[in-house]
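User: Sequence recovery, please. Input:
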């Protein structure tokens, strides 16, 4: 008999570079130029913490109205964290593993001058949403990286297959995997 094993991770925490340092022509950017500097990256990360506004992840660039009318366009309601690094801006998020098999990249939607609705103060640039895309505007972003938690839960499907290809009966077993750092 042959045994087949398939590991299916329902949800995983990943990190993805969503902006890198550089300068591009972009019609929606102020003066038609999107310039991403270390200071700009830091400002986006700081404003994410200050504004406490959710940053959703969509399938493609979408408006809030489109997503409300079709909730299947929403991948996740909010990213967990934005991290400024020397080479760009990274988003930490929980995703269904199927999404990682479907999309290979992201595109960031930025509000260049966010106005706080309660204080009417300008906060500068804020991340509006992240779009899963096949062809991002900014090329060369680093790929999705799985982040290790000290404890993760995996669903493992084991099937016994006989030599005459009779019906298989999957068995679902939950196991904990502890990774040492």
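Assistant: Recovered sequence (181 residues):
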């Amino acid at each position: 008999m042959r045994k087949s094993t398939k590991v299916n991770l329902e949800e995983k925490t990943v990190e993805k570079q969503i902006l890198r340092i550089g300068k591009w022509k972009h019609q929606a950017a102020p003066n038609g130029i999107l310039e991403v500097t270390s200071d700009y990256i830091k400002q986006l990360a700081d404003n994410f913490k200050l504004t406490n506004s959710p940053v959703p992840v969509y399938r493609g660039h979408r408006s809030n109205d489109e997503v409300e009318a079709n909730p299947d366009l929403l991948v996740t309601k909010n990213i967990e964290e934005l991290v400024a690094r020397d080479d760009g801006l990274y988003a930490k998020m929980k995703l269904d593993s199927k999404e990682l098999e479907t999309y290979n990249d992201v595109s960031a939607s930025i509000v260049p001058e966010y106005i706080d609705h309660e204080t009417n103060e300008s906060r500068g640039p804020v991340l509006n949403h992240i779009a899963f895309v096949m062809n991002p505007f900014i090329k060369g972003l680093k790929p999705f990286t799985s982040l290790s938690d000290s404890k993760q839960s995996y669903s493992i499907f084991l099937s016994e297959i006989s030599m005459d290809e009779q019906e298989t009966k999957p068995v679902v077993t939950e196991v904990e995997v502890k990774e040492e750092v």
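Confidence is low (pLDDT under 50) at residues 1-9, 149-175.
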